[in-house]
Write a sequence for this structure.
């Protein structure tokens, strides 16, 4: 993972400079700089607007008492997209707009979910859905996962408490 991050941090500026030079040769230096500044201004406005929306959705989910999985992923995408938009360059701006725009964010959200699921399989050994979609782990050993086909014999017994509210067993008849 460190090697991948190192390559990304080394190759991104090289790719950005190459694309900026190519665009500059096609439309000129001044229009290229103006275009980069316009993208940054538009990106800052979008980050502010979508960040506010993501924050309100997150607060609404917490307020209603439900798990804010979609809202958290949207907030993360807006944060990362905003960071990419602040980085000068056309490639990072395109990725940033993909993560921030409400039209394209579902695609980015699915890619993020796929990436997290893939990472969970490689790090933890958890395979969502297992071989048949049942949520089975690939770990082995005595403390791995309870087999799904194992039945524990027993019965469900209601809890009887006496009138004092103690949990000593069934109330005594007196």
């Amino acid at each position: 993972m460190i090697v991948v991050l190192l390559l990304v941090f080394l190759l991104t500026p090289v790719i950005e400079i190459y694309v900026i030079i190519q665009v500059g040769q096609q439309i000129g230096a001044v229009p290229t700089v103006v275009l980069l500044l316009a993208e940054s201004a538009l990106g800052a406005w979008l980050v502010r607007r979508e960040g506010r929306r993501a924050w309100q959705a997150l607060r609404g989910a917490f307020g209603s008492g439900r798990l804010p999985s979609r809202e958290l992923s949207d907030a993360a995408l807006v944060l990362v997209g905003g960071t990419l938009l602040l980085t000068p360059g056309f490639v990072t701006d395109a990725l940033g707009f993909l993560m921030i725009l409400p039209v394209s964010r579902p695609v980015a959200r699915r890619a993020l979910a796929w990436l997290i699921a893939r990472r969970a399989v490689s790090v933890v050994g958890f395979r969502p859905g297992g071989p048949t979609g049942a949520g089975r782990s690939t770990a082995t050993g005595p403390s791995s996962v309870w087999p799904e086909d194992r039945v524990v014999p027993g019965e469900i017994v209601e809890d009887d408490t006496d009138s004092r509210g103690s949990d000593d067993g069934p109330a005594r008849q007196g």
